[in-house]
Amino acid sequence: MKxxxxxTEYLHGEEEWFLEKCRYVEYKKLKKVxxxxxxxxxxxxxxxxxxxxATSLSDSCQYQSxxxxxxxxxxxxxxxxxxxxxxxxxxVRHLLHLHVATGMQRYMMRLRRCFTDEKQALIHxxxxxxxxxxxxxxAIRKILKKYxxxxxxxxxxNFKLKMRAERIELLHSPWLIGNxxxxxxxxxxxxxxxxxxxxxLMLPNSIExxxxxxxxxxxxTVFNPYALKCGHIFCKACACSSASVMIFQGVKAAPQxxxxxxxxxxxxxxxxxxxxxxxxxxxIRSKEYWKERMMGERSEMVKQSKMFWNxxxxxxxxx
Length: 319
Description:
The protein has helices at residues 3-11, 16-19, 27-51, 61-64, 67-99, 103-112, 118-151, 155-165, 174-177, 236-242, 276-285, 287-316; strands spanning 187-190, 198-203, 207-212, 225-227, 233-235, 273-274. The protein is mainly alpha-helical. It has a three-stranded antiparallel beta sheet, covered by helices on one side. A three-stranded antiparallel beta sheet has the order 5-4-6. GO terms for molecular function: ubiquitin protein ligase activity; zinc ion binding.
């Protein structure tokens, strides 16, 4: 079965109710745009061949750029990818809020479990979200590859790099990287207690993503991890230290001009994602390490808090 048929089947399958509320890639529509462009290019190529048989594919400018196709194609695809990323982010945030609920909300959820299987409902919604982001990511990859094949260019490949630069490439979303625990059956952590801990995400269609769990600042397994908007993962304490803010103030208190310690991207702290599920997973898998790091972070927080309030007091009394 071709991917177009598989994608259509997915759109009209069991998750159709979910997709009615979310944006998805208009794969068929974009494919028709390319098909029309391919026909025009074919006719144009035949005419030019009659004029000069020496004209090569690489010398033919219409293959390198197509204004009509670019306008119809890339603008639409960029908007779709942005909307899909936004939808995925809001859904995962809501799901995590329910999963790690505290206080009265936690009590109410436990009460509801007497009447409904809340855990299975959360797992099912997690699977739906994984399928949603994966199928749309594959659709974008396929259609960009087809674009380059039709035009004999690398514009599709360059567009993918642009998506990554603008932080809307779906499979590099921080919300995908660390917010799905083993309960969804798609995450595995290897070598947690060794020098090179790795997290692997097994997605539908045999897609495997691998992420290094070593903090680039302290060179240890990430503790209380945060993923910056650019996708790089750090310990909370390390990320705060790099941005010159105190741990108790939090990662998002970093100045707008703060840069990622790895890629040097500016403005990536404001939308940092607390990787709660990964944090809980590491707590279970490596209890002794987790306790050691927790005590160290708390000690540093107390130390920083004393310094902060001492400075505030000195300012208030005029010293």
